[in-house]
Design a protein that fits this description.
Elements lengths: L6 E4 L7 H11 L4 E7 L11 E8 L2 E7 L13 E6 L2 H12 L3 E9 L2 E8 L5 E6 L4
Parallel strand pairs: 1-4, 5-8
Antiparallel strand pairs: 2-3, 3-4, 6-7, 7-8
Length: 137
């Protein structure tokens, strides 16, 4: 058995935006890269050019993404988010600003009882991120 891998399905109003999101995420976080993107062709069950299956890394951790045109009764929810440990407040603030552009803070960058510097942000695709600066001893 292998470790779980986050899987992002871009559906509903976000359908067709998986590759855009992946490219955005890889530009925001260091040690991030696109591993592979397989797109639907002209004879596929989904619109041509949309993401059939993509693998990418965020801060060295693998994530999978797809586009799905099938009707679903759900989309992304804050109940599941991607957690990123940042090395400094500046690093967190830079990532948070990029993610919240046309998105929204659920908890803006601040000192909270559980963290010296933390934020929770929903990006423009509806994916939520919890960014944290690890406490120093």
């Amino acid at each position: 058995m292998e470790a779980p891998i986050p899987f992002l399905m871009f559906c509903g109003e976000q359908h067709g935006r998986a590759e855009e999101a992946i490219t955005s995420y890889c530009s925001i976080f260091e040690d991030s890269r696109i591993i592979s993107i397989d797109r639907y062709g002209p004879d596929g069950p989904e619109p041509q050019g949309t993401v059939r299956h993509a693998r990418f890394e965020i801060c060295g951790s693998e994530v999978i993404a797809i586009d799905s045109a099938a009707p679903h009764q759900f989309t992304f929810t804050p109940a599941i988010s991607l957690w990123v440990e940042c090395s400094s407040r500046d690093e967190l603030d830079t990532a948070a600003d990029a993610l919240q552009e046309t998105g929204a803070f659920l908890m803006p960058p601040n000192n909270y009882a559980f963290s010296d510097w933390f934020c929770w942000v929903a990006d423009k695709y509806g994916v939520t991120w919890q960014l944290n600066v690890a406490a120093t001893s």
